[in-house]
Design brief:
386 residues, alpha/beta, nine-stranded mixed β-sheet
């Protein structure tokens, strides 16, 4: 990731910040989406305890690679150069997915991907680097196999993803490239005490930064097993304080101070505090579902379908304007990495964390990576999610 690339994206976010303020003060809508997500499939080869995708009896229709290409070019016609984050399910198991990332690179679209790491073979690592990604995000829920693999439902996954990160690093560094590798951790009762250890593991594995988010209520396990309950709030607050301290010390943590500080409130299921209001996702997010439905927030109905209308038509449609108004008034406390509030200052800081992490990890690759041992502060079986 180059400074010039970040600068161009920052300009778009700055423009939209002005447009957001205009909308909030006058109702005049000059906003354009600046944050793009593409859910390429719902199918997944991992059985995460906090996810329902692998348990669904039926899946939404999936757009073909050609339909995705048309959709991506429609967005570019609307907003110019942009970045999009692909995810699933598990995107690497969708036939042609890496070809879609290569298409993005060939057409001036910055694409990144979030993966569970199971398919980061040497062959796929080489194809991924060929596609010149904007970033690679790997979901890792603990710094050890016991906890991570329990939460993910795959006994050997921790070793597979650790090897996969190394394959990508080797190929990326061999070609003199600099895209960041970001570790994403889903926080729950089984792993929250391990977050400080995750910071150490991120550096040990040679990744660029850590980005984490607490689970939400979804599966049976998130109610019965994984939710952080009241007796643990004091321990969670201690971890929050520690993560804030580590961030102040310059450790590679991408989350904003506000998001970190709201972790306990999230598990208390409180409403959003004034400092995180108003919600701005309706003025900036463009989330494409597998079947082409476009949402600004997955708690609200779709605002259109990218197979049926252009990105511009969808964004300024009556339905989009209606949902935009509703999201601004919403007081749900969201700490999802896609939805959580980020100021311009937050975004600059996130960019600086990535640039610093790339510089730090331009040193020779650390080989023979071993998992960190549990600290003994876990609960129950000491296990974690993805």
């Amino acid at each position: 990731m180059k400074v010039s690339t970040l600068a161009r994206l920052a300009f778009k976010h700055t423009y939209n910040h002005v447009a957001e303020e205009l909308y909030l003060k006058t109702g005049q809508d000059a906003t354009k989406p600046v944050t793009f997500y593409g859910l390429v499939n719902e199918r997944c080869n991992v059985k995460c305890r906090y996810c329902e995708y692998w348990r669904l009896p039926n899946y939404k229709d999936e757009m073909s690679i050609e339909e995705w290409q048309k959709a991506l070019m429609s967005i570019k016609d609307f907003v110019g150069t942009y970045s999009i984050s692909f995810s699933g399910g598990e995107p690497f198991i969708k036939p042609g997915f890496l070809d879609l990332m290569a298409f993005c690179s060939a057409n001036g679209i910055h694409s990144g991907v979030t993966t569970n790491g199971s398919a980061l073979t040497k062959k796929n690592a080489a194809k991924l680097v060929d596609a010149k990604p904007f970033n690679l995000c790997v979901s890792v829920d603990a710094p050890n196999a016991e906890t991570h693999d329990y939460l993910r439902g795959w006994p050997t996954l921790f070793q597979k993803l650790s090897d996969g990160i190394q394959y990508v690093r080797e190929e990326r560094d061999r070609r003199g490239m600099d895209f960041p590798i970001i570790i994403k951790t889903t926080v729950n009762s089984k792993n929250f005490r391990m977050l400080p250890d995750m910071v150490d593991w991120v550096k040990k594995v040679g990744a660029t930064a850590l980005n984490f988010q607490p689970i939400d209520r979804w599966t049976k396990e998130t109610y019965d097993e994984l939710w952080v309950e009241e007796p643990e709030y004091d321990d969670l607050q201690k971890v929050v304080d520690k993560m804030m301290e580590l961030k102040r010390q310059g450790e590679p943590i991408m989350n904003s101070d506000l998001v970190i500080s709201l972790m306990v409130k999230h598990f208390r299921e409180e409403s959003a505090p004034p400092e995180s209001m108003p919600c701005r996702v309706g003025m900036r997010d463009f989330f494409i579902r597998t079947n082409g439905d476009v949402e600004v927030c997955f708690f609200y109905p779709a605002i259109g379908n990218i197979k049926e209308n252009s990105a511009r038509e969808i964004w300024y449609s009556p339905k989009a304007r209606e949902i935009r108004k509703e999201t601004v008034e919403c007081d749900k406390l969201c700490l999802y990495t896609c939805l959580s509030q980020k100021t311009i200052t937050d975004k600059v800081k996130m960019g600086l964390v990535l640039l610093k992490g790339q510089k730090t990890h331009s040193q020779p690759l650390i080989t023979n990576i071993q998992p960190l041992e549990p600290t003994g502060t876990g609960t129950g079986t000491g296990v974690g999610v993805g």
